[in-house]
Design a protein that fits this description.
The chain is mainly beta. It has a single domain, classed as N-terminal domain of TfIIb, CATH 2.20.25. Helices cover 9% and strands 31% of the residues. Strands 1, 2, 3, 4 and 5 form a five-stranded antiparallel β-sheet that branches. The N and C termini lie far apart (35 Å). This is UPF0434 protein EOE66_15745. In the C-terminal section; belongs to the UPF0434 family. InterPro entries: Trm112-like. It comes from Rubrivivax rivuli.
Length: 65
């Protein structure tokens, strides 16, 4: 199942209401929607974004300036 790019443009981070970026695996399949401001990744399950703060995982590495 493919995630509609129009849907991605409408979705925002449930924490800060900021824009989200698509995270992809090595085969370029979408795996999560990422909020760069909050450093959180919201998973995709069966092509459906799970936009719950309790389901998000923190991103590794230093925060962006």
């Amino acid at each position: 199942m493919s995630l509609d790019h129009r849907l991605i443009d409408l979705l925002v981070c449930p924490v800060c209401k900021g824009p989200l970026d698509m995270q992809r695996d090595a085969e370029q399949r979408p795996t999560a929607l990422v909020c760069p401001a909050d450093r959180l990744a919201f998973p995709l399950r069966d092509g459906i974004p799970v936009m719950l703060e309790s389901e998000a995982r923190p991103l590794d590495g230093p925060a962006a300036a």
